[in-house]
Amino acid sequence: MKIFITGGTGFIGGHLVRHLSGRGDSIVIATRSPEKRKGDESVRYVSLKGNLTEHMEGCDVVVNLAGESLFGKRWTAAVKRRLYDSRIQTTRKLVDAMRKMDSKPALLLSGSAVGYYGDCGSDKITEKRGVGNDFLAELCRDWEHAALEAENIGIRVVNPRIGVALGKEGGALATMLPVFRAFLGGSIGSGEQYFPWIHVDDLSRSFLHAMDDDSVTGPYNAASPNPVIMDDFSKALGDVLSRPSLFRVPEFGLNLVLGEAAIMITTSLRVIPEKITEKGFRFNYEQVSEALRQLLLD
User: Fold this and answer.
1) What domains lie within the chain, and their CATH numbers?
2) Residue 73: which of 201, 234, 259 has the closest Cα?
3) Cβ(81)–Cβ(266) under 8 Å?
């Protein structure tokens, strides 16, 4: 297949590109600075600011993972606008470009996040759960709605609601590793909040499954079937690294530093991937301890 990707140079996108290249797909990556990128023969870089309709010609699938990082900053009004525009406006631009195509892609796989649900405590959350009422939930809702406009032009739309992707090259785990290795690791917030993790390879494989199975439509939870509370995740990480998990970052401290953005860490999301498993997808890493061992010890 020929795949067009936004966000293909990021942590999650980079893993997906390696999976696609490994199975022989042809890849076009839209980025702001294509001149700075070099890929193998299966990857071509184009400008995200260019004529997207032209660049998408002949593509079977469009994957949309573009978006400014949500982590590491306070959500001021200006930051919220950038977070919103980098997702919703980019998605609208892609749909508008596809609308102009004579031969349209069969699928738009456009990212979302488990933050769609808001804080749900210890409730088990399937795709049937409604949207939350905080900024992140509303951002995910509008992101999905922008992608769903492609259905009006005959394109299948899939929205993976992505959990915390675990990989040693990036994301949350890469941020935690230096702290734990320095014997300063521990839990964050109350420690009782559910942590909706997924091994980054399982995440990429779920994307491929959605590409190959035409019956997969709409949102699906892209998270392990076995979410754990933060205390248990921290203990598992400490055990794999042979380090103690003694320290705790209290919730009030996170709120002081990050303000509203602290909900990224303190929100409890016991997310269950009901829909994708019903479609026959099987996780290679169902337990957090085996996922961490594979990432850090193999």
Assistant:
1) 2-296 (3.40.50.720)
2) 259
3) no
